[in-house]
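Lab manual, section 2.4: Encoding a predicted structure.

Procedure: take the sequence of the chain (195 residues), apply the prediction step described in section 2.3, and record the output as structure tokens. A sample record is shown.
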Amino acid sequence: MKSDITRLVDRYGHFEQRLRQHTERWCRPFCSVCRHVCCRVHFCVETRESVFLRRVVKRFSDRSVFSLSHGWLTATGCALAAGHPPVCYEFLCRHISDAVSGDPCRHYALQVSSLLITHVGRRALGGRHLVEITRASDLNRVNPDRFMNRLREAEIAFQAVVDILDGRSSKADIQALFRIVRPPWTDDQEIRRLM
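Recorded output:
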């Protein structure tokens, strides 16, 4: 099973790096001029409590140093290349969300992108999310095929998100997003019309 866990950590970490690069590219114009810091140490602590995230951090961010007062946050941003808790992606400030609020399809794509990491780890062990697993012995009980299927769904949806946010969307892109989360009711009819 160790080779399965290593394979999961590698694939997950590479996916998260791609997602982070895209998220940073999309959010940088807003975050670079914002005076508020969204990161909180109590979010960062999850990477130390979760046996899976600890492995991802060790594999992809081994030189990063955790600070009790600042977590993974440095003067130039987050020190982690991969291994972030899902909340780091889930949070979209009003300014970022408002930037695409006039376009229901792009707004939906942005919301889906914020839930891709959450989707990958959902129900990894019973009803627990992957990052909620705190014992190594429980991590070995994760079904690798189920995990990889969810990761593949997230990878396909991620490419759809990139296409939609870049102004290229197709019926297949919208369907890929539906596998992650349904659109908000306010956008549902408009998005269904595109299918």
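Check your result against the sample. The chain has a mean pLDDT of 89.
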